[in-house]
Write a structure and sequence with these properties.
By secondary structure, this protein is mainly beta. It has one domain. The protein has 1 helix and 19 strands. A 6-stranded antiparallel beta sheet has the order 5-4-7-15-14-13, with no helix packed on it. The longest helix has 7 residues, at 15-21. The relative contact order is 0.28.
């Protein structure tokens, strides 16, 4: 009999990093709603990105947390993880479409409850987007989130901008109110956002925890809810649907920034047990 369990995972609130890079406050709230055609007033709203390019290096599900705060690098073996994607072995490593990741006997699955999912990303986010209000069209530019283009005519293809993520506390070393670990460290934030818990960690080229210009990768880990119970002979697959959103921030009359929004994906585990 085929059984389906669905869980929603919040993997990275990337605007926190980008806000620190450009030395501006984080434009966020407890809940950010979809944009409705108006310029938001001292708050943010969500739009779908026109383009969102991001390379995924690996995805794992684990019985234990693969990167607790006393470690300096992820440990997939100790945590009894199943590797679902490795960029060295697969070309299915971006956000386009639906990712389907199979669990079969060939993976030598360890019996148990799989409670965590982790994602390792390249630290390079390339996005673009546009938004229409009553009188104007607004779009991203190559200069970054705050250099918004305004036009009276439609902007059919908005320009992409690139961002790398560096520090949870910002250049001024200020507590990040979204980080439960005492405002975060430069490299690690234990986030609580809109009911979702996750940890975001910067890594260098050797997968050692770091921050600043040495941050080559971003590692995100979150609890699965519900967890996935597997046996040695379990078979099935996980479907992952990526949501690629941007945040529009304004003062009520002018759009001041279009930046990367919460990075969310929806995952569905489908058991193919007979």
């Amino acid at each position: 009999m085929r059984s389906i369990s669905i869980f929603y995972l919040f993997i990275g609130y990337l605007i926190l990093f980008i806000g620190s890079i450009i030395n501006k406050p984080v434009y966020s709230s407890i809940r950010i709603l979809n944009c409705t055609g108006n310029v938001p007033k001292k708050t943010a709203c969500i739009i779908k990105a026109t383009s969102y390019d991001l390379k995924i290096n690996r995805i794992d599900i684990c019985q234990k947390d693969p990167f607790p705060n006393y470690q300096s690098t992820p440990d997939f073996s100790r945590s009894k993880c199943i590797n679902l994607l490795d960029s060295a072995l697969s070309t299915q490593n971006d956000l386009n479409g639906i990712g389907k990741f199979y669990i079969s006997k060939d993976l030598k699955t360890k019996k148990g409850e799989y409670k965590y999912i982790s994602v390792l990303l390249n630290n390079k986010f390339i996005v673009s987007g546009k938004y229409k209000t009553d009188n104007y069209f607004w779009a991203t530019s190559k200069e970054g989130p705050e250099k918004v283009i305004r036009s009276e005519s439609n902007i059919s293809i908005p320009t992409k901008f690139t961002r790398k993520l560096t520090n949870w506390r910002g250049d001024k070393n200020i507590d990040n109110k979204y980080c439960e670990n005492n405002g975060g460290t430069p490299s690690r934030c234990e986030l609580l956002y809109n009911g979702f818990k996750m940890t975001g960690i910067g890594l260098d080229s050797d997968l050692i925890e770091t921050s600043g210009s040495k941050t080559k990768y971003m590692f995100f880990v979150s609890e699965l809810s519900p967890s996935v119970s597997l046996k040695e002979d379990s078979e099935g697959y996980l479907n992952i649907i990526w949501e690629k959103n941007l945040e529009v921030y304004g003062n009520g009359s002018v759009v001041k920034s279009i930046s990367i929004a919460p990075f969310i994906f929806k995952t569905r585990f489908i058991s193919e047990a007979q």
